[in-house]
Amino acid sequence: MPDLDTIVQDIAQEMRARPDRGTVASYIPELARADAQAFGLVVIDGDGRVAAGGDADIPFSIQSISKVFTLTLALGMVGDRLWRRVGREPSGSPFNSIVQLERENGIPRNPFINAGAIAVTDVILSGHQPREALGEILRFMQFLAQDDSITIDERVAASEKRTGFRNAALANYMRSFGVIENPVDYTLGVYFHHCAIAMSCRQLATAGLFLAYSGHHPLAGHSVISAERARRINAIMLTCGHYDGSGDFAYRVGLPGKSGVGGGILAVAPGKASICVWSPGLDAAGNSHLGRIALEMLVKRTGWSIF
Ligand code: DON
Protein backbone atom coordinates (compact mmCIF):
# COMPACT_ATOMS: atom_id res chain seq x y z
CA MET A 1 0.00 0.00 0.00
CA PRO A 2 1.43 3.43 -0.89
CA ASP A 3 1.83 6.01 1.88
CA LEU A 4 -1.82 6.88 1.75
CA ASP A 5 -1.78 9.30 4.66
CA THR A 6 0.63 11.59 2.86
CA ILE A 7 -1.25 11.33 -0.42
CA VAL A 8 -4.62 12.09 1.19
CA GLN A 9 -3.23 15.01 3.23
CA ASP A 10 -1.53 16.48 0.15
CA ILE A 11 -4.73 16.29 -1.85
CA ALA A 12 -6.86 17.78 0.95
CA GLN A 13 -4.44 20.66 1.33
CA GLU A 14 -4.36 21.39 -2.37
CA MET A 15 -8.14 21.19 -2.71
CA ARG A 16 -8.69 23.57 0.23
CA ALA A 17 -6.70 26.26 -1.55
CA ARG A 18 -8.21 25.98 -5.03
CA PRO A 19 -10.33 28.93 -6.14
CA ASP A 20 -12.42 26.95 -8.67
CA ARG A 21 -15.00 25.26 -6.46
CA GLY A 22 -17.98 24.66 -8.77
CA THR A 23 -21.54 25.71 -7.90
CA VAL A 24 -23.46 24.49 -4.86
CA ALA A 25 -26.83 22.95 -5.84
CA SER A 26 -29.77 25.22 -5.09
CA TYR A 27 -32.71 23.54 -6.85
CA ILE A 28 -33.32 21.85 -3.49
CA PRO A 29 -33.24 25.08 -1.44
CA GLU A 30 -31.92 23.47 1.74
CA LEU A 31 -28.82 22.18 -0.09
CA ALA A 32 -27.83 25.76 -0.95
CA ARG A 33 -26.79 26.22 2.70
CA ALA A 34 -23.74 23.95 2.21
CA ASP A 35 -20.32 25.56 2.63
CA ALA A 36 -18.54 25.71 -0.74
CA GLN A 37 -15.19 25.78 1.10
CA ALA A 38 -15.75 22.34 2.64
CA PHE A 39 -13.61 19.47 1.44
CA GLY A 40 -13.23 15.95 2.85
CA LEU A 41 -11.53 12.77 1.64
CA VAL A 42 -11.44 9.33 3.28
CA VAL A 43 -9.82 6.13 2.00
CA ILE A 44 -10.43 2.85 3.87
CA ASP A 45 -8.95 -0.54 3.04
CA GLY A 46 -10.07 -4.06 3.90
CA ASP A 47 -7.96 -4.15 7.05
CA GLY A 48 -9.71 -1.08 8.36
CA ARG A 49 -6.76 1.22 7.76
CA VAL A 50 -8.07 4.74 7.29
CA ALA A 51 -6.50 7.74 5.61
CA ALA A 52 -8.59 10.84 6.27
CA GLY A 53 -8.12 14.46 5.18
CA GLY A 54 -10.06 17.71 5.56
CA ASP A 55 -13.71 17.58 6.67
CA ALA A 56 -13.78 13.79 6.96
CA ASP A 57 -16.37 13.69 9.75
CA ILE A 58 -18.87 16.37 8.77
CA PRO A 59 -22.19 14.84 7.69
CA PHE A 60 -23.51 15.98 4.31
CA SER A 61 -26.58 15.11 2.26
CA ILE A 62 -25.76 11.88 0.44
CA GLN A 63 -28.50 12.45 -2.17
CA SER A 64 -27.98 10.19 -5.20
CA ILE A 65 -25.24 8.15 -3.52
CA SER A 66 -28.14 6.50 -1.66
CA LYS A 67 -29.13 4.97 -5.02
CA VAL A 68 -26.23 2.51 -4.85
CA PHE A 69 -27.60 1.15 -1.59
CA THR A 70 -31.25 1.09 -2.62
CA LEU A 71 -30.19 -0.79 -5.77
CA THR A 72 -28.35 -3.31 -3.57
CA LEU A 73 -31.41 -3.75 -1.33
CA ALA A 74 -33.88 -4.07 -4.23
CA LEU A 75 -31.70 -6.69 -5.96
CA GLY A 76 -31.63 -8.58 -2.67
CA MET A 77 -35.43 -8.50 -2.53
CA VAL A 78 -36.43 -9.36 -6.11
CA GLY A 79 -33.18 -10.42 -7.81
CA ASP A 80 -32.91 -10.06 -11.56
CA ARG A 81 -36.66 -9.42 -11.85
CA LEU A 82 -35.68 -5.83 -11.05
CA TRP A 83 -34.46 -5.46 -14.64
CA ARG A 84 -38.03 -5.70 -15.91
CA ARG A 85 -38.68 -2.30 -14.38
CA VAL A 86 -35.40 -0.51 -14.96
CA GLY A 87 -32.61 -0.77 -17.54
CA ARG A 88 -28.87 -0.72 -17.12
CA GLU A 89 -27.65 1.46 -19.95
CA PRO A 90 -26.10 4.91 -19.58
CA SER A 91 -28.69 7.58 -20.32
CA GLY A 92 -26.51 10.25 -21.90
CA SER A 93 -29.00 12.67 -20.37
CA PRO A 94 -29.14 14.81 -17.23
CA PHE A 95 -30.10 13.02 -13.99
CA ASN A 96 -33.62 14.46 -13.94
CA SER A 97 -34.40 14.15 -17.65
CA ILE A 98 -37.89 13.05 -18.70
CA VAL A 99 -37.63 12.65 -22.50
CA GLN A 100 -36.37 9.05 -22.70
CA LEU A 101 -39.25 7.75 -20.61
CA GLU A 102 -41.83 8.38 -23.32
CA ARG A 103 -39.80 6.69 -26.05
CA GLU A 104 -39.00 3.70 -23.85
CA ASN A 105 -42.41 2.76 -22.41
CA GLY A 106 -41.82 4.32 -19.01
CA ILE A 107 -38.79 2.10 -18.28
CA PRO A 108 -35.95 4.28 -16.97
CA ARG A 109 -32.54 3.76 -18.55
CA ASN A 110 -30.74 2.83 -15.33
CA PRO A 111 -31.17 2.75 -11.51
CA PHE A 112 -29.07 5.87 -10.91
CA ILE A 113 -30.95 8.54 -12.86
CA ASN A 114 -33.83 9.94 -10.80
CA ALA A 115 -36.54 8.01 -12.67
CA GLY A 116 -34.66 4.73 -12.23
CA ALA A 117 -34.03 5.32 -8.55
CA ILE A 118 -37.69 6.18 -7.98
CA ALA A 119 -38.65 2.86 -9.67
CA VAL A 120 -36.15 1.02 -7.44
CA THR A 121 -37.60 2.73 -4.35
CA ASP A 122 -41.05 1.57 -5.45
CA VAL A 123 -39.78 -2.04 -5.46
CA ILE A 124 -38.44 -1.67 -1.90
CA LEU A 125 -41.74 -0.15 -0.81
CA SER A 126 -43.90 -2.96 -2.18
CA GLY A 127 -45.98 -4.53 0.55
CA HIS A 128 -44.65 -2.17 3.23
CA GLN A 129 -45.63 1.11 4.79
CA PRO A 130 -43.35 4.01 3.74
CA ARG A 131 -42.05 4.24 7.32
CA GLU A 132 -41.04 0.56 7.28
CA ALA A 133 -39.30 0.81 3.90
CA LEU A 134 -37.41 3.88 5.02
CA GLY A 135 -36.43 2.20 8.28
CA GLU A 136 -35.10 -0.74 6.28
CA ILE A 137 -32.93 1.56 4.13
CA LEU A 138 -31.66 3.57 7.11
CA ARG A 139 -30.79 0.45 9.12
CA PHE A 140 -28.93 -0.94 6.09
CA MET A 141 -26.85 2.25 5.93
CA GLN A 142 -26.17 2.14 9.67
CA PHE A 143 -25.09 -1.49 9.47
CA LEU A 144 -22.79 -0.92 6.47
CA ALA A 145 -21.28 2.20 7.99
CA GLN A 146 -21.01 0.45 11.36
CA ASP A 147 -22.57 3.51 12.94
CA ASP A 148 -26.06 3.69 14.47
CA SER A 149 -25.97 7.46 14.78
CA ILE A 150 -26.72 8.04 11.07
CA THR A 151 -30.00 9.91 10.57
CA ILE A 152 -32.16 11.55 7.94
CA ASP A 153 -32.01 15.33 7.61
CA GLU A 154 -35.74 16.09 7.77
CA ARG A 155 -35.21 19.67 6.60
CA VAL A 156 -33.59 18.48 3.39
CA ALA A 157 -36.34 15.89 2.84
CA ALA A 158 -39.07 18.51 3.40
CA SER A 159 -37.26 20.99 1.16
CA GLU A 160 -37.09 18.46 -1.66
CA LYS A 161 -40.71 17.44 -1.17
CA ARG A 162 -41.79 21.09 -1.48
CA THR A 163 -39.86 21.61 -4.71
CA GLY A 164 -39.69 18.14 -6.29
CA PHE A 165 -42.15 18.83 -9.10
CA ARG A 166 -39.97 17.20 -11.72
CA ASN A 167 -39.56 14.01 -9.70
CA ALA A 168 -43.33 14.00 -9.17
CA ALA A 169 -43.75 14.28 -12.94
CA LEU A 170 -41.35 11.36 -13.51
CA ALA A 171 -43.11 9.22 -10.92
CA ASN A 172 -46.61 9.95 -12.21
CA TYR A 173 -45.50 9.28 -15.76
CA MET A 174 -44.01 5.90 -14.75
CA ARG A 175 -47.19 5.12 -12.79
CA SER A 176 -49.17 5.54 -16.03
CA PHE A 177 -47.08 2.70 -17.53
CA GLY A 178 -47.41 0.53 -14.40
CA VAL A 179 -43.66 0.81 -13.70
CA ILE A 180 -44.57 2.43 -10.36
CA GLU A 181 -47.09 0.30 -8.48
CA ASN A 182 -47.54 2.08 -5.15
CA PRO A 183 -49.25 5.44 -4.56
CA VAL A 184 -46.90 8.01 -6.06
CA ASP A 185 -46.83 10.06 -2.84
CA TYR A 186 -45.63 7.04 -0.86
CA THR A 187 -42.86 6.18 -3.31
CA LEU A 188 -41.70 9.79 -3.57
CA GLY A 189 -41.81 10.21 0.20
CA VAL A 190 -39.43 7.28 0.69
CA TYR A 191 -37.23 8.46 -2.21
CA PHE A 192 -36.91 12.04 -0.88
CA HIS A 193 -36.07 10.74 2.58
CA HIS A 194 -33.38 8.26 1.53
CA CYS A 195 -31.75 11.00 -0.57
CA ALA A 196 -31.78 13.16 2.59
CA ILE A 197 -29.73 10.72 4.69
CA ALA A 198 -26.78 12.64 6.15
CA MET A 199 -23.40 10.90 6.34
CA SER A 200 -19.75 11.84 6.56
CA CYS A 201 -16.97 10.76 4.18
CA ARG A 202 -15.77 8.31 6.83
CA GLN A 203 -19.23 6.73 7.20
CA LEU A 204 -19.81 6.49 3.44
CA ALA A 205 -16.38 5.05 2.70
CA THR A 206 -17.02 2.41 5.38
CA ALA A 207 -20.45 1.67 3.90
CA GLY A 208 -18.94 1.14 0.45
CA LEU A 209 -16.39 -1.46 1.55
CA PHE A 210 -18.52 -4.43 0.46
CA LEU A 211 -18.31 -3.22 -3.13
CA ALA A 212 -14.52 -3.09 -2.98
CA TYR A 213 -14.24 -6.59 -1.50
CA SER A 214 -16.43 -8.77 -3.74
CA GLY A 215 -19.59 -8.35 -1.70
CA HIS A 216 -17.96 -9.08 1.65
CA HIS A 217 -17.84 -6.29 4.23
CA PRO A 218 -14.53 -6.84 6.00
CA LEU A 219 -15.33 -4.64 9.01
CA ALA A 220 -18.89 -5.86 9.54
CA GLY A 221 -17.61 -9.43 9.02
CA HIS A 222 -20.54 -10.23 6.75
CA SER A 223 -21.19 -11.21 3.16
CA VAL A 224 -23.62 -8.50 2.09
CA ILE A 225 -24.09 -9.73 -1.50
CA SER A 226 -22.46 -12.24 -3.83
CA ALA A 227 -19.22 -11.42 -5.63
CA GLU A 228 -21.08 -11.54 -8.94
CA ARG A 229 -23.63 -8.99 -7.78
CA ALA A 230 -20.94 -6.68 -6.42
CA ARG A 231 -19.17 -6.82 -9.77
CA ARG A 232 -22.38 -5.92 -11.55
CA ILE A 233 -23.22 -3.01 -9.28
CA ASN A 234 -19.69 -1.70 -9.81
CA ALA A 235 -20.20 -2.00 -13.57
CA ILE A 236 -23.33 0.13 -13.37
CA MET A 237 -21.53 2.67 -11.18
CA LEU A 238 -18.77 2.91 -13.77
CA THR A 239 -21.11 3.34 -16.73
CA CYS A 240 -23.96 5.33 -15.13
CA GLY A 241 -22.76 6.71 -11.77
CA HIS A 242 -22.10 10.24 -13.01
CA TYR A 243 -25.02 10.67 -15.45
CA ASP A 244 -23.88 12.25 -18.70
CA GLY A 245 -20.52 12.85 -17.06
CA SER A 246 -19.94 9.09 -16.64
CA GLY A 247 -17.70 8.74 -19.68
CA ASP A 248 -15.52 11.62 -18.59
CA PHE A 249 -15.28 10.25 -15.03
CA ALA A 250 -14.23 6.83 -16.35
CA TYR A 251 -11.69 8.51 -18.63
CA ARG A 252 -10.18 10.71 -15.92
CA VAL A 253 -10.57 8.55 -12.78
CA GLY A 254 -11.14 4.99 -14.01
CA LEU A 255 -13.02 3.73 -10.95
CA PRO A 256 -16.67 2.82 -10.37
CA GLY A 257 -18.17 5.86 -8.66
CA LYS A 258 -21.48 7.38 -7.65
CA SER A 259 -22.04 11.07 -7.17
CA GLY A 260 -24.74 13.06 -5.39
CA VAL A 261 -25.83 16.69 -5.69
CA GLY A 262 -24.78 17.17 -2.06
CA GLY A 263 -21.23 17.08 -3.49
CA GLY A 264 -20.24 13.59 -2.38
CA ILE A 265 -18.72 10.87 -4.53
CA LEU A 266 -18.34 7.25 -3.41
CA ALA A 267 -15.65 5.47 -5.43
CA VAL A 268 -14.59 1.84 -5.37
CA ALA A 269 -11.07 0.54 -6.03
CA PRO A 270 -11.76 -3.22 -6.24
CA GLY A 271 -9.56 -5.19 -3.85
CA LYS A 272 -7.81 -1.99 -2.74
CA ALA A 273 -10.08 0.44 -0.95
CA SER A 274 -13.39 2.24 -0.60
CA ILE A 275 -13.13 6.00 -1.06
CA CYS A 276 -15.42 8.92 -0.31
CA VAL A 277 -14.77 12.52 -1.25
CA TRP A 278 -16.95 15.54 -0.54
CA SER A 279 -16.92 19.07 -1.87
CA PRO A 280 -20.33 20.74 -2.34
CA GLY A 281 -19.59 22.74 -5.51
CA LEU A 282 -20.80 20.93 -8.64
CA ASP A 283 -19.87 20.94 -12.32
CA ALA A 284 -22.36 21.36 -15.17
CA ALA A 285 -23.41 17.68 -15.03
CA GLY A 286 -24.23 17.92 -11.30
CA ASN A 287 -21.13 16.08 -10.06
CA SER A 288 -18.70 17.39 -7.42
CA HIS A 289 -16.12 19.53 -9.23
CA LEU A 290 -13.25 19.21 -6.75
CA GLY A 291 -14.36 15.69 -5.80
CA ARG A 292 -13.61 14.50 -9.31
CA ILE A 293 -10.31 16.37 -9.45
CA ALA A 294 -9.26 14.92 -6.07
CA LEU A 295 -10.08 11.38 -7.20
CA GLU A 296 -8.12 11.93 -10.39
CA MET A 297 -5.11 12.94 -8.29
CA LEU A 298 -5.56 9.99 -5.91
CA VAL A 299 -5.68 7.48 -8.74
CA LYS A 300 -2.67 9.01 -10.45
CA ARG A 301 -0.60 8.63 -7.29
CA THR A 302 -1.85 5.17 -6.26
CA GLY A 303 -2.19 3.57 -9.69
CA TRP A 304 -5.64 2.31 -8.66
CA SER A 305 -7.45 2.88 -11.98
CA ILE A 306 -9.11 -0.37 -13.04
CA PHE A 307 -7.74 0.13 -16.56
O1 DON B 1 -33.97 13.73 -6.88
C1 DON B 1 -33.09 14.57 -6.83
O2 DON B 1 -32.99 15.46 -7.66
C2 DON B 1 -32.09 14.49 -5.70
N1 DON B 1 -32.71 13.96 -4.52
C3 DON B 1 -30.93 13.62 -6.05
C4 DON B 1 -30.22 14.04 -7.32
C5 DON B 1 -28.77 13.79 -7.32
O3 DON B 1 -28.10 13.64 -6.31
C6 DON B 1 -28.13 13.84 -8.65
N2 DON B 1 -26.71 13.72 -8.49
N3 DON B 1 -25.77 14.21 -8.91
From TrEMBL:
EC number per UniProt: 3.5.1.2
Binding site for substrate: 64, 114, 160, 167, 191, 243, 261
Keyword Aminoacyl-tRNA synthetase: no
Keywords on record: Acetylation, Hydrolase
Catalysis performed (reactions): L-glutamine + H2O = L-glutamate + NH4(+)
InterPro entries: Beta-lactam/transpept-like, Glutaminase
Family, similarity comment: Belongs to the glutaminase family.
The protein's assembly and partners: Homotetramer.
PANTHER family attached to this UniProt entry: GLUTAMINASE
Name of this chain's protein: Glutaminase
Organism of derivation: Methylorubrum aminovorans
